[in-house]
Amino acid sequence: MSLCTHFVRPSLETSLEASSPAQVRLVPTSDEGVHSRPANPGVDNALARLVALLQSNDRLLADLKVLDGRLADAKVYLATPGANLLLGRSRVERVRDQRSLVMTALRSNRIAAREFLSSPVS
After folding, report:
1. Is 11 helix (H, G, I), strand (E, B) or coil?
2. Is the pTM of this model over 0.85?
3. DSSP letter string over 44-83?
4. At a CB cut-off of 8 Å and minimum separation 6, what does 80 contact?
5. Which of 72-77's residues contact partners 24+ apart within 8 Å by CB, and which partners?
6. Among residues 58, 62, 75, 81, which one has the fewest Cβ atoms lying within 10 Å of its Cβ?
7. Nearest alpha carbon to residue 23 among 43, 52, 45, 51
8. Which residues lie below 8 Å from residue 10, measured CB to CB, with a gap of 6+?
9. Distance between CA 115 and CA 4 in Å, rounded?
10. Cα–Cα distance, 42 to 106 (Å, whole number)
């Protein structure tokens, strides 16, 4: 794989746009599960919030790993002789901006998790 091909990859914009925690609805898989569970919507909502935070963190951490690779690729590109410095620097800046968005979303999830853990389950 050539350096130029490795440097230009599809963007993460579609997965980075939804950086807030996802809304998850729990759907029972059978009628039996609906009748055997106690009716306590507070617990179901709390569980859904927790699942949403965990899934969001997993996705964001995967995005962060991809962005770290792209940042390293851009730095390697800049270190090659004859590299287009303007292109390389703009790529580094763009990846850093995307990485900053992911880190902000992870911080938001951490704050939401702290609120979740400090709130009583009713």
Report:
1. coil
2. no
3. HHHHHHHHHHHHHHHHHHHHHHHHHHHHHHHHHHHHSTT-
4. 3
5. 73/6, 73/7, 73/9, 74/7, 76/3, 76/7, 77/3, 77/4, 77/7
6. 81
7. 52
8. none
9. 45
10. 25
